[in-house]
Amino acid sequence: MALAVFAYISMVLFIGITAYKARKLAQLPLHGRMELYPVPGEKGRHEYGGSYYEEAEWWKKPRELSKGTELKEMLKEMLFIKKLFENQRPLWWLSYALHLGIYFLAAWSVLIIAGAFTELAGLPVKAGAAAGTSLWAVLLYYLGIFTGVVGFALAAFGSGALFLRRVFDGTLKKYTTPQEYFNLLLVFAAVVSGLTVWGSDPTFGNARSVMAHVLSLTSFAAGPLLVLHVILVGVMFIYIPLSKMSHYVGKYFTFHKVLWENEPNVAGSEMEHKVKQALGYRPQNAWSAPHVKAAGAPAPEK
């Protein structure tokens, strides 16, 4: 029962902290506008890096946007980590293995939850050889095996290989902080503990059984390895939105509010209001330099 409660608490905190961080990012002042092109929202001009502003007297003409192109570009980054592929190809293979493994494990988790609900409803999830087995149960069975095996393998390989790469690559080592080593080790430990717990049952029937107990808040027998695995996964879920691994939230704002933000600043517009607000913003920095005065500090002597 205690493990089930801890699992629920960790998921609630993950969702809550993620939502809070997204809200804080959405409320940040307007960024320094650099007009970086191409901007996918520029309908018909994205391919050659053009802009609505290239039109003569553009402020008198309707502005056409393409949400479909924006979505396409975002999916390239979310699903394939496009920019890392283009700029750091050797590192991309390891990073993508980790991210793809996480995607598969997310799908596996959904399938395990769906399988647990199915079994709680009285329909066993198993191979389709037995008479009367439903197509839904068969899909849950085989897709669960596929996503679980691939997900655990890729995530374990990716996190472990990235950790070793940062340890032994002289260039990366210079820019790697202790937190980044900890992040990779935490993910690696959570994944490997899962492999240890569920690896003896590649059909993941035990995982569905445990999930059914968690969903129904009923007690179940838990060995030391399962307890360790649940604790590691719970800690990881609580920690991720607090760390730099929360880039899954920040990336949306980085693209839409920094890289692709080229809304016209015309009189009376919402953008004009945002610019005026930004101009009145005074950062409360606690540091100073010859060209930057700390908040509340006297001006440097000339």
Question: Which short descriptors sum up this protein?
Answer:
302 residues; mainly alpha; Fumarate Reductase Cytochrome B subunit; 11 helices
- Overall 3D shape: globular
What structural class results from the helix and strand content? Answer: mainly alpha
Give the radius of gyration: 25 Å
- DSSP strand tally: 0
Order of helices and strands: HHHHHHHHHHH
Mean pLDDT score: 88
- Predict the CATH topology of the domain at 2-12 and 88-257: Fumarate Reductase Cytochrome B subunit
Please identify the top-level CATH class of the domain at 2-12 and 88-257.
Mainly Alpha
Oligomeric grouping of the chains: single chain
Query: N-to-C terminal Cα separation, in Å?
Result: 68 Å
Which percent bin holds the helix content?
55-70%
Name the CATH architecture of the domain at 2-12 and 88-257.
Answer: Up-down Bundle
Strand content: under 5%
Poorly predicted sequence stretches spanning 5 or more consecutive residues: none
Largest sheet: none
Number of helices: 11
Question: What does this 3D model show about the protein?
Answer:
- The structure is a single chain.
- With 302 residues, the chain is an all-alpha fold.
- It has a domain at 2-12 and 88-257: Fumarate Reductase Cytochrome B subunit (Up-down Bundle).
- 63% of the residues lie in helices and 0% in strands.
- The model has no long low-confidence stretch (mean pLDDT 88).
